[in-house]
Task: inverse folding
């Protein structure tokens, strides 16, 4: 149980409601269901991820997927202590920028950045990226490489012109595009029960999450 955490993924974006918690808990569920020791660190005072864990019924396939609260900025050694013994740690960030978001970006291997189609989220990215730039300066002092920046367009729909615009716009900013997760009722419906969309393994929503999870794990390209 003492090997270092294989991968720490921080889901960050100052824009509220873009899907940070939804993606963090569903990706954590994907990791857990693969048999990996997985931790969710809820860094938001609203504690949605923590409540999600608490809503789960006994006997769920997600039993053993641990959610802890840490809604303060933490230094890197403290993150290492909290995540020790887990193969994957997901840091669910708060809907604002500042020292909590920055400390998560210092600790993470991957910064997963959800954006909803449309100009408003796209504009909000610039400030989130500036926060990641500051985190990268701290990382450099700690001899850590820059955090990997992976965008995901969330709540998209095939018919939305704005989805395409957002994707095109992303080509201009520094980072990888990790694909899209579609707007699907299975996300809120499963979350309300402390579950993930993977309870219906053959659903389109489950396929979205597995595809994104492969991309997150798989490294660049
Ligand atoms: N792909 C999706 N399809 C349908 N609903 C979604 C999807 N992603 C997120 N939602 C819904 O959007 C709402 C906001 O999502 P979520 O709480 O994950 O965002 P957040 O970024 O964590 O918000 P906050 O910034 O307040 O922490 C929730 O009701 C969630 O169920
Ligand atoms: Mg949230």
Result:
């Amino acid at each position: 149980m003492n090997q270092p955490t294989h991968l720490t993924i921080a889901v960050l974006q100052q824009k509220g409601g873009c899907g940070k918690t939804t993606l963090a808990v569903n990706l954590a569920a994907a990791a857990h269901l693969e048999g990996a020791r997985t931790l969710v660190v809820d860094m938001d005072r609203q504690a949605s991820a923590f409540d999600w864990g608490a809503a789960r019924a006994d006997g769920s396939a997600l039993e053993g997927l641990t959610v802890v609260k840490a809604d303060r900025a933490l230094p890197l050694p403290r993150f290492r202590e909290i995540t020790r013994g887990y193969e994957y740690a997901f840091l669910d960030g708060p809907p604002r920028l500042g020292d909590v978001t920055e400390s998560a970006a210092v600790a993470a291997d991957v910064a997963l950045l959800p954006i909803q189609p449309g100009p408003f989220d796209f504009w909000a990215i610039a400030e989130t990226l500036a926060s990641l730039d500051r985190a990268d300066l701290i990382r450099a002092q700690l001899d850590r490489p820059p955090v990997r920046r992976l965008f995901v367009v969330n709540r998209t729909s095939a018919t939305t012109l704005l989805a395409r615009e957002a994707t095109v716009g992303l080509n201009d900013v520094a980072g990888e595009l990790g694909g899209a997760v579609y707007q699907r009722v299975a996300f809120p419906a499963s979350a309300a029960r402390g579950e993930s969309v993977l309870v219906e393994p053959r659903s389109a929503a489950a396929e979205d999450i597995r595809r994104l999870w492969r991309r997150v794990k798989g490294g660049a390209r």
Summary: The chain has one domain: 7-216.
